[in-house]
Amino acid sequence: MKTEVIFSPAGFAPLPGQDLSATVCVVFDVLRATSTITTALANGANAIIPVATIPEAVDLRTRQPQILLAGERMGIRISAELTGGVEFDLGNSPREFTPETVGGRTIAITTTNGTVALRACAKARTTFAASFLNLEATAAAVLELAPERLLIVCSGTLEDAAYEDTLGAGALVHLLPDAMLADSALIARNLYRLEQSDITSALGSSRNGRRLRANPTLVGDLAWCAQVNLFPVTSILGIDGRITKGPGSV
Ligand code: MLT
Predict the structure, then answer these.
(1) Minimum-distance ligand 1 atom for the alpha carbon of 116
(2) Does domain 2-237 bear CATH number 3.10.20.30?
(3) Which of 29, 54, 155, 222 to mutate for ligand 1's pocket (most ligand atoms within 8 Å of CB)?
(4) What's the whole-model pTM score?
(5) Angle, in degrees to the nearest 10, between helices 163-174 and 183-195
(6) Kind of pairing, strands 68-73 and 76-77?
(7) pLDDT per residue over 206-248, tens digit each?
């Protein structure tokens, strides 16, 4: 299994034009999109539909009025001012996605980077949404698939690489003993090994982490997203564009 890491949006932008039929993609947006998606599925959401833009999400709601709308811009829940009148039900804080709120529901979500990265990987053999919350379950599912090529995609922060996603990527590489590691995977794995004793502080030192720390409503997301293996759940993006619980989920 040749294992590579893409660190930033410039790296994943060309993926839709590439043949990914023998590639398994694992997308990380630790702060916070893939942590939120994992939490939603673990708390009983039926499916999550990741979309790149606000109009796509609003259009889905028009066609399926029962779905919940979730997402952020600049880290804050999308409001009617941004959509031309539609108020989103949820932001992108995983702590909002409780069993009471999301149980049995389908949720369309759009975020600045995470859902864009997921959409970029849509034609891969299999695409997982991963986070520290479901690291071991994801690693086990990847090992079971034993793909020719594993591409770990870090969603990044705006145009840049994100420290927390690189750590997530490295934590996954750390769990894949048989992988043939590209230098990008070695970089991520070795960084994770330096930081593994205190993931919460490491996340808090990142650009996204500092933004969350400055917001009293969102600061709790840091400790939430730093929980390792909280959920025995894999999150898989299907060819129908919906993320649902995948193999190995309990
Ligand atoms: C993103 O997709 O860029 C993030 O998850 C941003 C955030 O939640 O603040």
Answers:
(1) 2
(2) no
(3) 29
(4) 0.97
(5) 100
(6) antiparallel
(7) 999 999 999 999 999 999 999 999 999 999 999 999 999 998 8
